[in-house]
Amino acid sequence: MKKLALFVFIIVAAAVFSGCLGGTTDTTEQTIKTDDGEVKVKTETKTDGETTIYEQTFESDAGTETVKVTSKAGKDDWCPEGGDWDMKSTGVGGTATASMKIDKLVTSGKYAGLCHVVYTAKSPDGEMKIDYWFDESGNRGFYEMDINGQKISQEWTG
After folding, report:
1. Residue ranges covered by each domain of the chain
2. Which residues sit opposite 86 in a β-bridge?
């Protein structure tokens, strides 16, 4: 069930972040049959101005899990300063939270011309923070992460 929930969450988070679900209020309910039984899924999407709220609840014999994602687009720009995305998941395994905050378009130094985004996540397994700097195409960038005190840095291209 967790793999299914994670897959659905990633797809919907991408849609919310890209604005594909903007301007609507929608509620759907469906039952998905798996090898482990049935999973009832209720999905609700609301949009209010620049803010979109997406909430999905999964019910099965293993329990109930709810994922709520709130995003704010900010300015109509590729790096909208102040834009953010927040997620909270509650269920039988505990509570997990994650957020992405768009800091700014960097104008000088090593990261000049790159958008700075800070991602943080907390779960029963620990905490993680990742700073991203990337160009408008997303083909070039850097990240620095801190996972439970371990620091990792990397550059990517392509």
Report:
1. 2-157
2. 70, 99
**Closest by CA position to 83, among listed 45, 50, 120:** 50
The pLDDT tens digits of the residues spanning 130-148 come to 999 999 998 999 999 988 8
Rounded CA separation 120/118 (Å):
7
Cβ neighbours of residue 139 closer than 8 Å, sequence gap 6 or more: 157, 158
Q: Token digits for 156?
A: 């990517």
- Rounded to whole angstroms, how far apart are CA atoms 86 and 41? 21
pTM of the model as a whole: 0.67
Query: Burial of 102 by CB count in 10 Å (0-12 exposed, 13-18 middle, 19+ buried)?
Result: buried
